[in-house]
């Protein structure tokens, strides 16, 4: 499972929620039903939820001009697992993600589907519900979360085997024994490890596949093509394939999907009308974490 998080320092609560609840990309079952998880939120409309996200900011303990007000978090699965994915499984993993992320936070989670690609959009507040404590994740915390939610997937849905990735093990997996020994002896990264670090940094900052290549260029790296397709980078007069450095075509396509979603988000902010979330018989309400699931039909 791939976990990607985009931070927002502007109050785009309504725009993000409207994009997430847009029927065009939403995932519906054969009966035209879907789900929307609301955690530590009351009501059943975008306006009510956006108002509560905004109101919760009054409890923030440390106020800064560049504070993260909201985060857009995405859980996605490999397209080869599409035949095994169901709304029930996605909802279970979304709830577990919220539990492991921080059950004291405020969240809305909605399933999407496009280009044979299943994913869940999550709108998360920047601080905990009424405590003011930050929901910020350190690199170590994020790695722990990624591994934790993936372990849940492996234990409960082993059929989703194509969506298992090695979080945090990229460098170790592709480093040779010789490079490892050099690092132990000198305490310095090998040229290849340094190259991987640069690529990781560019990938984290990139908003699209094209911007990733542009960031590589700005970092002094030259890319090369094979068969009309961007294949890798040139470093110290040697060619390194992206696949050899731990970057798959699926990851690059995920960047493009992120860009498409951001474009859709911007359009949704101004064009979409207010929408109330209609409940049906599938509703759960846990007193321990105030989490509700609203299933509703598309138009």
- In percent terms, what proportion of residues is strand? 15-25%
Mean pLDDT across the residues is 83
Radius of gyration: 21 Å
- Biggest sheet, in brief? 7 strands, antiparallel
Order of helices and strands: EHEHEHEEHHHHHEEEHEE
Order of strands across the widest beta sheet?
A: 1-3-5-4-2-10-9
Number of strands: 10
In the CATH hierarchy, the third-tier topology of the largest domain is known as BirA Bifunctional Protein, domain 2
Shape: globular
Percent in helix: 25-40%
Give the name of the CATH architecture of the largest domain: 2-Layer Sandwich
Low-confidence stretches: 170-177, 180-189, 278-289
Q: Count helical runs.
A: 9
Helix/strand-derived category reads alpha+beta
CATH class of the largest domain: Alpha Beta
Number of domains: 2
Give a quick summary of the entry.
With about 300 residues, this protein is of the alpha+beta class. It has nine helices and ten strands. Residues about 170-175, about 180-190 and about 280-290 have low confidence and may be disordered.
Question: What are the main properties of this structure?
Answer:
2 domains, three-stranded antiparallel β-sheet, 299 residues, single chain, BirA Bifunctional Protein, domain 2, alpha+beta
Structural commentary:
The structure is a single chain. It contains nine helices and ten strands. By secondary structure, it is α+β, with helices and mostly antiparallel strands. Helix content is 38%, strand content 19%. The radius of gyration is 21 Å and the shape is globular. The model is unreliable at 170-177, 180-189 and 278-289 (pLDDT under 50). The protein has helices at residues 13-20, 46-56, 87-101, 139-156, 170-174, 177-186, 191-205, 209-218, 249-271; strands at residues 2-8, 36-39, 70-76, 107-114, 117-125, 222-226, 229-235, 238-241, 285-286, 291-294. The strands form two sheets. It has a seven-stranded antiparallel sheet, with helices on both faces. A three-stranded antiparallel sheet has the order 6-7-8, covered by helices on one side. It folds into two domains: 2-165 and 268-294, BirA Bifunctional Protein, domain 2 (2-Layer Sandwich), CATH 3.30.930.30; 170-247, no CATH class. The longest helix is centred in the C-terminal third of the chain and has 23 residues, at 249-271. The relative contact order is 0.18.
């Amino acid at each position: 499972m791939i976990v990607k998080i985009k931070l927002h320092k502007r109050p785009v609560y309504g725009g993000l929620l409207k994009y997430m609840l847009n029927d065009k990309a939403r995932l519906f079952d054969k009966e035209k039903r879907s789900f929307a998880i609301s955690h530590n939120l009351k009501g059943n409309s975008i306006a009510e939820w956006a108002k509560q996200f905004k109101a919760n900011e009054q409890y923030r303990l440390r106020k800064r001009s560049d504070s993260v007000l909201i985060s857009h978090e995405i859980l996605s699965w490999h397209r080869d697992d599409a035949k095994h994915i169901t709304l029930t499984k996605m909802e279970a993993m979304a709830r577990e993600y919220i539990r492991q992320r921080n059950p004291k936070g405020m969240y809305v989670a909605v399933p999407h589907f496009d280009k044979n690609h299943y994913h869940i959009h999550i709108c998360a507040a920047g601080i905990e519900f009424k405590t003011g404590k930050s929901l910020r994740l350190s690199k170590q915390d994020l790695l722990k979360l990624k591994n934790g939610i993936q372990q849940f997937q492996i234990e409960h849905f082993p059929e989703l085997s194509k969506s298992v990735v090695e979080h945090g093990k990229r460098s170790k997996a592709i480093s040779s024994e010789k490079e490892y020994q050099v690092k132990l002896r000198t305490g310095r990264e090998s040229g290849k490890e340094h190259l991987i670090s640069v690529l990781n940094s560019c990938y984290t900052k990139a908003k699209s596949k094209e911007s990733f290549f542009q960031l590589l260029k700005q970092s002094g790296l030259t890319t090369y093509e094979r068969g009309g397709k961007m294949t890798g980078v040139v470093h110290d007069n040697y060619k390194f394939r992206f696949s050899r450095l731990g970057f798959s075509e699926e990851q690059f396509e995920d960047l493009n999907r992120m860009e498409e979603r951001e474009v859709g988000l911007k359009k949704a902010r101004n064009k979409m009308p207010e929408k109330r979330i209609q409940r049906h018989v599938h509703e759960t309400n846990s007193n321990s974490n105030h989490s509700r699931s609203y299933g509703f039909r598309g138009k």
